[in-house]
Amino acid sequence: MIFEEIHIKNLFSYREAVFDLDGASSDRNIALISGRNGYGKTSLINCIKLLFVGANEDMRASVLSGRSLTRKQYILGTHNDEWLGIMNRRARRAGEKDCEIRITWRDGSNDSLIDARRAWRIDSTGFEETLAISGTGSSVLQDDAAREYLEGLLPQDYLPFFFFDGEQIQCLAEANREKLLAQIERLLNISPIDTLREDLNRLANEWRKKAMVEGEKSCLTELEGDQNTLSAQLGALEEKRTDTRSDIDRLKREVQEEEHRLDSHRVASQDHDKKALTGKRDHLAKELEETQDRIADSLPSTVPLLANPRLVKSAVAELRKLVENDATQQASALQDVLSDLQTDLFDKPPHSSPRLTESQIRFYKHRLESLLRAHIPRPEDMSEGLLRMELSRARALLSVLDHFAQADRERRTQAQTLQRITRLKRDFAEVALSLDDVSHLPEEEHEEFFRRKAANDERKRRIGALEQEIKHSEESRTEINKQLREKDKAIRDQEKQVRLSAAARAKVERAEQMHGFFRAYKDTLKRHKREAIERAINTHFQALVTGHALIQHIHVAEDFGIHFEDSEGRARGQPVGGDETTHGHRPAVGAQGGLRQGGPPGYRYAAGPHRPRPSGKPAVALLPQGGPAGHRATHRLGTGRPKARTARPPRVPGISSE
Description:
By secondary structure, the chain is α+β, with helices and mostly antiparallel strands. 57% of the residues lie in helices and 11% in strands. The protein folds into three domains: 2-56 and 87-189 and 519-636, P-loop containing nucleotide triphosphate hydrolases (Rossmann fold, 3-Layer(aba) Sandwich); 212-266 and 438-499; 284-425, no CATH class. Residues 456-497 form a coiled coil.
């Protein structure tokens, strides 16, 4: 499949564009699509993906953070303008209703030309979508037949690895490992084994249920019902959390937009004063935040003691009575004697001969403790004051309260800090009021300003309330997940108690044997696949990347992660070469050198560091290409019809954004 022409009409950022990719020759077989931010590179990738898979789940989930759009929302747009749909905005304003993506490619097997076109007719209430493919050797394929043809040509599971936005590589690298592993297993045709194992588990559970006595079956059914209820509650909670987060994002955008409108109403003739007031407001806000943070670290735990000096001094006086009482001192001394005497008499050498047994030691210790405790008065009988407690606790409490009874300086310092916070808040409110001075405006605009300001303040209050809802929902989510784990354990325990008939037991045992067989088969299959991938990577790596002499062997781990080994046999999984293998321009330059000298058949290299990038990384794309290496042509986006450095750019079967 070698692309020859891409035609886009009224899709995303494209009004109409034609990419002529025909004309590859022995010295011209690499194309580079380049452009500044916002000039349509990502739109080009999305258009190509739309042709092959339409508005599938992956594309709908990539638009808004935290939730997936419906197919209708993706194509038409959302009611709150969070997503404007696939139709080009200028075309929509001009009243046009049609948009399409058409790609012409050459079939590598028989050199025939294939023309595929997916089009939409969009109005305010809905859309009509058509898909047609011609040049397949038969009549024109329409809709379902065309979709089946494209799925056979390039399955949806493979699409992300052929057409992707290079700027999203970091997101791919940080993707959830379980999801990524599941995707890899699906690509390697391993996942059907998991389906077999799940079916075997389901059958075994059904056979167990049929063999249960009524009481056990009823109990299990009740547990499963509780589990389903909790799962439904969790699903509803997740949906509500998603909606709440969406509402928060929408309100924050509205607050920001409304603040800009309010700024336009403020005094335009006092720009200098406004600038000074804005600076003062920001300074006060920063100072207020720092002061509040400082006092929040110490005041909450000590404020009851600092705010009640008379009560603290009274407590200190009562504690001194307790600590200095003669009976208390005697009781403390007897307690110390009892504690030390048991250890010194029975546990420390020299010991009696013959040695006492353990039971004798316990008997005499208990006897000694009973005799001495008879002479230790109870705490409530030892003091004439208000407090009754053990001497050790009284001493510890006295040491704490005595400090606060004499902490007049600290008390004054904290009081001054609180007064300063009050002054800062008052000054901040006065500056904010001055910034909102719109007294020069006509009465109608004056009222409109404060109406808008009140509405925006209400939005801010609503954001705070919604964020609290998110916090509470997180707590509920944690609790429901805990209950689900408990129910799952209870269900497993109940299933173990099932009394099976001989026939049912035989079927269940056979199912468990098959389940174990398929698990072992999957492990063996994964090992063979990993070994094949590892051999292929090591076969081509040295030719592809000549700039990394430190890496002598690449190991594919259990989870298909890549680990390196150097010439000294460094342990698998440890990085080799540090920054040279992970960051900056050096790996790209090394790769470029290796690929220019030669690589695996059918692959050529394209790089485009034509402008500084925020990440500091060059634009890189590895494109499967049918012709020989050597030529580099460029399409630049954002200046109307793409232009090439040469008369006819080369054929390109896949396009990668910068």
